[in-house]
Amino acid sequence: MLFNSLSFLFHFLLFYTIYYFVSYRIRKYLLLAFGIYFYSKWNVNATILLLLSVAFNYSLARFLSQLSGKKRKVLFVFAIFTNLFYLGAFKYFIFVWELFSDLRIGFGFPGLTWKPEILLPIGISFYTFHNISYLIEVYDERILPCKSFFTFAIYDLFFPLLLLGPIERPGNLIPQIESEQTITKEKVWNGISLFIWGVFIKSTIADPFSRYVEIHSPNFDSLEPGILWIVAPVIAFQVYADFFGYSLCAMGLAEMMGFQLMNNFKRPFFASNPSLFWSKWHISLSTWLRDYVYIKLGGNRHGFFRENINLMVVWFLAGIWHGAGYGFLIWGVYLGLCLVFYRSLKHYGFVKESNHIQFILGIFLTFYSFSLGLLLFRIQSPMETKLILENLSHLPNVSSIPIMVLLTIIPLLAFDLWQEWKDTDRPNFFISSKPFSFLIMFFFLFLWFSLFSPFGKQDFFYFQF
Questions:
Q1: Predicted confidence (pLDDT) per residue in 304-319, tens digit
Q2: What 8-state DSSP symbol labels residue 396?
Q3: Which of 217, 235, 240, 214 is nearest to 227 (CA)?
Q4: Where are the domains of the chain?
Q5: Residue (of 377, 386, 385) closest to 325 by Cα position
Q6: Which of 164, 244, 242 is nearest to 203 (CA)?
Q7: Stretch 442-452: mean pLDDT
Q8: Does residue 157 carry a pLDDT above 90?
Q9: 335 closest CA partner among 380, 287, 297, 372
Q10: Exposed/middle/buried for residue 43 (C-beta within 10 Å: 0-12, 13-18, 19+)
Q11: Is position 322 annotated as part of the catalytic site?
């Protein structure tokens, strides 16, 4: 069930009508039941795998709290390794198999003709990282393990963030599950506004843009010279509207139910450097990698050279996390190099934050470096990197610039600019005093685009991760 579908809307309204009027104790069982049902609509077998993961991690965390010394450390390592193996088996085994086949061909041996078929559960990267953060927090004694299996199961099966995150921290979500949810008029209206805006930008920006991207970047060797300079920023806005749209929907649904999820995006396209960009884009993943990988590796405590090595390791892992393929590996290395390059310029005094010209130029360069990096997602083999570079070696034809695309992104940019001016920590429409005027405006906007847009619905971009 897509958030931007009548099927989901019908099921959620039925669920929410019951949820709103029952006690918070019954709400827990409703949340768990709806989470299982929601995920099962995608694949029943994947739901069984998820429930086994829930039981496994709940039990291990309980055992961890009862052990000490070497036994505790061994069990913790086993728990983390098992989760990573679980993720790797379903997500990376086929890629490793294909890589091994390519290596055989490279050394003059015949490639492997048989290819295994393995189910890839939707959202496996998100809920696996969910579980790893829970185990780390329990091991470091920052939180106590859940006494109730139902509480932990809801944490893992909380349907707004089950498929695409954000990767919510256990210290934030679990206490909210254990306590009574207070549903106020303000939370309901804020939740509705976030959900509507999320569906709106997904349906009216991300979906049409994905059609444009599919037309202009299927085969890199047959494209108009220089067209990728135009396609790249369209991809950036497509991914942003898609993933930001999902995150807004998740935040809105949670707020309507009395929960508050972390904000996953904070106007990233206004960032003036790569470091700032990654503190505003996919915040739950960036902070996860910072806290559980970068800092564990030593962070910036062992000198500038070691700090940059740690960054490269983090972003190599970030590339692998996004997907199993050559493009994702190259993308991770590319992002790491962008960060190292910027931090080196800053370290040696070439960047001055107070310089307004550098600030404006920094926004443009940061956006374009990220946009060009997204082209790497579509690489199927290392040789396609050369084709991308050859295309970018030409200047684009001005007549190829899609004017409708530029006009379409205006509402999204206007919203982000408004939030930047208000300096909000979370997306906010400030509608608690005048909700009906907002909803009427959105109803007509959404109805217009829904009726007259020639594009059909698309899966959310991050489902592949």
A1: 889 999 999 999 999 8
A2: P
A3: 217
A4: 26-181, 186-272+353-464
A5: 377
A6: 242
A7: 60
A8: yes
A9: 372
A10: middle
A11: yes
